[in-house]
Amino acid sequence: MKKFFSEFKKFISRGNVIDLAVGVIIGGAFTAIVTALTNGILKPLINFIISLIIGGDDATGIYTFLKVVNDADGVVDMAASIYIDWGALISAIINFFLVALILFIIIKAINKAKDAAKDPKIEERITKKQAAGKKLSKKEQKYLADLEAAKLAAEEEKRKAEEEANKLTRSEQLLTEIKMLLEKK
Protein backbone atom coordinates (compact mmCIF):
# COMPACT_ATOMS: atom_id res chain seq x y z
CA MET A 1 0.00 0.00 0.00
CA LYS A 2 2.90 2.33 0.80
CA LYS A 3 4.36 1.70 -2.66
CA PHE A 4 1.01 2.59 -4.23
CA PHE A 5 0.87 5.97 -2.49
CA SER A 6 4.49 6.76 -3.31
CA GLU A 7 3.81 6.01 -6.99
CA PHE A 8 0.67 8.17 -6.83
CA LYS A 9 2.67 11.03 -5.29
CA LYS A 10 5.28 10.67 -8.04
CA PHE A 11 2.52 10.70 -10.66
CA ILE A 12 0.93 13.86 -9.27
CA SER A 13 4.23 15.68 -8.97
CA ARG A 14 5.14 15.03 -12.61
CA GLY A 15 2.48 17.36 -13.95
CA ASN A 16 0.63 14.58 -15.76
CA VAL A 17 -2.41 15.32 -13.62
CA ILE A 18 -2.97 18.56 -15.51
CA ASP A 19 -2.69 16.70 -18.82
CA LEU A 20 -5.14 14.14 -17.47
CA ALA A 21 -7.60 16.84 -16.35
CA VAL A 22 -7.46 18.53 -19.75
CA GLY A 23 -8.01 15.17 -21.41
CA VAL A 24 -11.05 14.44 -19.23
CA ILE A 25 -12.58 17.85 -19.95
CA ILE A 26 -12.00 17.60 -23.70
CA GLY A 27 -13.17 13.98 -23.66
CA GLY A 28 -16.36 14.98 -21.83
CA ALA A 29 -17.08 17.74 -24.32
CA PHE A 30 -16.52 15.48 -27.32
CA THR A 31 -18.52 12.70 -25.68
CA ALA A 32 -21.50 15.04 -25.40
CA ILE A 33 -21.20 15.97 -29.08
CA VAL A 34 -20.82 12.38 -30.22
CA THR A 35 -23.68 11.21 -27.96
CA ALA A 36 -25.96 13.86 -29.47
CA LEU A 37 -24.90 12.74 -32.96
CA THR A 38 -25.51 9.06 -32.25
CA ASN A 39 -28.78 9.51 -30.32
CA GLY A 40 -30.26 12.22 -32.55
CA ILE A 41 -29.15 11.07 -35.99
CA LEU A 42 -27.60 7.61 -36.04
CA LYS A 43 -30.02 5.82 -33.68
CA PRO A 44 -33.13 6.79 -35.69
CA LEU A 45 -31.34 5.75 -38.90
CA ILE A 46 -30.29 2.43 -37.34
CA ASN A 47 -33.85 1.83 -36.06
CA PHE A 48 -35.22 2.66 -39.54
CA ILE A 49 -32.81 0.20 -41.18
CA ILE A 50 -33.73 -2.50 -38.64
CA SER A 51 -37.44 -1.93 -39.29
CA LEU A 52 -36.83 -2.23 -43.06
CA ILE A 53 -34.92 -5.48 -42.54
CA ILE A 54 -37.57 -6.94 -40.23
CA GLY A 55 -40.40 -5.59 -42.35
CA GLY A 56 -42.70 -4.36 -39.63
CA ASP A 57 -45.32 -1.70 -40.30
CA ASP A 58 -44.78 0.03 -36.96
CA ALA A 59 -41.87 0.84 -34.66
CA THR A 60 -42.44 -2.23 -32.48
CA GLY A 61 -40.49 -4.34 -34.97
CA ILE A 62 -37.21 -2.67 -33.98
CA TYR A 63 -37.49 -3.85 -30.38
CA THR A 64 -37.31 -7.30 -28.84
CA PHE A 65 -40.12 -7.37 -26.30
CA LEU A 66 -39.66 -9.34 -23.12
CA LYS A 67 -42.99 -8.17 -21.69
CA VAL A 68 -45.63 -6.36 -23.75
CA VAL A 69 -48.17 -4.10 -22.08
CA ASN A 70 -51.00 -2.69 -24.22
CA ASP A 71 -53.03 0.39 -23.36
CA ALA A 72 -56.84 0.64 -23.59
CA ASP A 73 -56.70 1.13 -27.38
CA GLY A 74 -54.59 -1.99 -27.86
CA VAL A 75 -51.44 0.03 -28.65
CA VAL A 76 -48.19 -1.11 -27.07
CA ASP A 77 -47.40 0.99 -23.99
CA MET A 78 -43.63 1.48 -24.38
CA ALA A 79 -43.25 3.00 -20.90
CA ALA A 80 -44.79 -0.04 -19.20
CA SER A 81 -43.36 -2.69 -21.53
CA ILE A 82 -39.97 -4.33 -21.05
CA TYR A 83 -37.94 -4.48 -24.24
CA ILE A 84 -34.46 -4.51 -25.75
CA ASP A 85 -33.66 -1.48 -27.89
CA TRP A 86 -31.18 -2.80 -30.44
CA GLY A 87 -30.76 0.63 -32.01
CA ALA A 88 -29.61 2.05 -28.65
CA LEU A 89 -27.04 -0.75 -28.29
CA ILE A 90 -25.65 -0.29 -31.80
CA SER A 91 -25.68 3.48 -31.30
CA ALA A 92 -23.72 3.13 -28.03
CA ILE A 93 -21.10 0.96 -29.76
CA ILE A 94 -20.72 3.52 -32.54
CA ASN A 95 -20.59 6.26 -29.88
CA PHE A 96 -17.72 4.47 -28.12
CA PHE A 97 -15.70 4.07 -31.30
CA LEU A 98 -16.26 7.67 -32.37
CA VAL A 99 -15.16 9.02 -28.96
CA ALA A 100 -12.12 6.74 -28.96
CA LEU A 101 -11.21 7.87 -32.48
CA ILE A 102 -11.58 11.57 -31.62
CA LEU A 103 -9.51 11.20 -28.43
CA PHE A 104 -6.86 9.28 -30.36
CA ILE A 105 -6.65 12.10 -32.90
CA ILE A 106 -6.46 14.73 -30.14
CA ILE A 107 -3.75 12.85 -28.22
CA LYS A 108 -1.79 12.29 -31.42
CA ALA A 109 -1.98 16.03 -32.21
CA ILE A 110 -0.90 16.97 -28.67
CA ASN A 111 2.05 14.56 -28.81
CA LYS A 112 3.03 15.91 -32.21
CA ALA A 113 2.91 19.47 -30.84
CA LYS A 114 5.05 18.45 -27.84
CA ASP A 115 7.57 16.79 -30.13
CA ALA A 116 7.68 19.90 -32.33
CA ALA A 117 8.29 22.07 -29.25
CA LYS A 118 11.37 20.04 -28.37
CA ASP A 119 14.61 21.53 -29.61
CA PRO A 120 16.53 18.73 -31.39
CA LYS A 121 19.85 20.60 -31.22
CA ILE A 122 19.65 21.56 -27.55
CA GLU A 123 22.21 18.99 -26.42
CA GLU A 124 24.71 20.18 -29.02
CA ARG A 125 24.16 23.80 -28.01
CA ILE A 126 24.55 22.98 -24.29
CA THR A 127 27.79 21.11 -24.94
CA LYS A 128 29.20 24.04 -26.91
CA LYS A 129 28.18 26.57 -24.23
CA GLN A 130 29.63 24.45 -21.42
CA ALA A 131 32.89 23.99 -23.33
CA ALA A 132 33.10 27.77 -23.89
CA GLY A 133 32.20 28.47 -20.23
CA LYS A 134 29.03 30.38 -21.20
CA LYS A 135 25.95 30.58 -19.00
CA LEU A 136 23.05 28.29 -19.94
CA SER A 137 19.54 29.64 -20.53
CA LYS A 138 16.69 28.62 -18.21
CA LYS A 139 15.33 26.29 -20.89
CA GLU A 140 18.73 24.60 -21.20
CA GLN A 141 19.10 24.34 -17.42
CA LYS A 142 15.62 22.81 -17.16
CA TYR A 143 16.50 20.37 -19.95
CA LEU A 144 19.61 19.25 -18.05
CA ALA A 145 17.66 18.97 -14.79
CA ASP A 146 14.95 16.89 -16.48
CA LEU A 147 17.60 14.72 -18.11
CA GLU A 148 19.30 14.16 -14.75
CA ALA A 149 15.97 13.39 -13.05
CA ALA A 150 15.12 10.85 -15.76
CA LYS A 151 18.56 9.29 -15.40
CA LEU A 152 18.17 9.04 -11.59
CA ALA A 153 14.68 7.56 -11.96
CA ALA A 154 15.98 4.95 -14.41
CA GLU A 155 18.84 4.06 -12.05
CA GLU A 156 16.38 3.77 -9.15
CA GLU A 157 14.11 1.47 -11.19
CA LYS A 158 17.12 -0.66 -12.15
CA ARG A 159 18.22 -0.85 -8.49
CA LYS A 160 14.70 -1.88 -7.41
CA ALA A 161 14.58 -4.54 -10.12
CA GLU A 162 17.94 -5.91 -8.96
CA GLU A 163 16.71 -5.97 -5.35
CA GLU A 164 13.61 -7.89 -6.41
CA ALA A 165 15.76 -10.37 -8.33
CA ASN A 166 17.99 -10.80 -5.25
CA LYS A 167 14.93 -11.34 -3.05
CA LEU A 168 13.81 -14.14 -5.34
CA THR A 169 17.28 -15.63 -5.26
CA ARG A 170 17.35 -15.48 -1.44
CA SER A 171 13.90 -17.02 -1.29
CA GLU A 172 14.96 -19.81 -3.59
CA GLN A 173 18.07 -20.41 -1.45
CA LEU A 174 15.93 -20.62 1.71
CA LEU A 175 13.53 -23.02 0.04
CA THR A 176 16.44 -25.19 -1.09
CA GLU A 177 17.87 -25.22 2.44
CA ILE A 178 14.47 -26.13 3.91
CA LYS A 179 14.08 -28.90 1.34
CA MET A 180 17.52 -30.28 2.20
CA LEU A 181 16.74 -30.19 5.94
CA LEU A 182 13.48 -32.03 5.36
CA GLU A 183 15.21 -34.65 3.23
CA LYS A 184 17.76 -35.30 6.01
CA LYS A 185 14.99 -36.26 8.42
What does this structure look like?
By secondary structure, this protein is mostly helical. It has 2 domains: 118 residues, Non-ribosomal Peptide Synthetase Peptidyl Carrier Protein, Chain A (Orthogonal Bundle); 67 residues, no CATH class. It is 76% helix and 5% strand. It has 5 helices and 2 strands. Strands 1-2 form a two-stranded antiparallel ribbon. It is flat and about 90 Å long. It starts with a helix and ends with a helix.
Cα Rg: 31 Å
By CATH, the topology of the largest domain is Non-ribosomal Peptide Synthetase Peptidyl Carrier Protein, Chain A
Shape: flat
The percent range for helix content is over 70%
CATH level-two architecture of the largest domain: Orthogonal Bundle
Main β-sheet description? 2 strands, antiparallel
Helix run count: 5
CATH class of the largest domain: Mainly Alpha
Structural class designation: mainly alpha
Distance between the termini: 40 Å
Number of strands: 2
- Strand order across the largest sheet: 1-2
Strand content: under 5%
Say which CATH homologous superfamily of the largest domain is assigned: Large-conductance mechanosensitive channel, MscL, domain 1
- The mean pLDDT is 78
Parts with pLDDT < 50 across at least 5 consecutive residues: none
- SSE string: HHEEHHH
How many structural domains are formed by the residues?
2
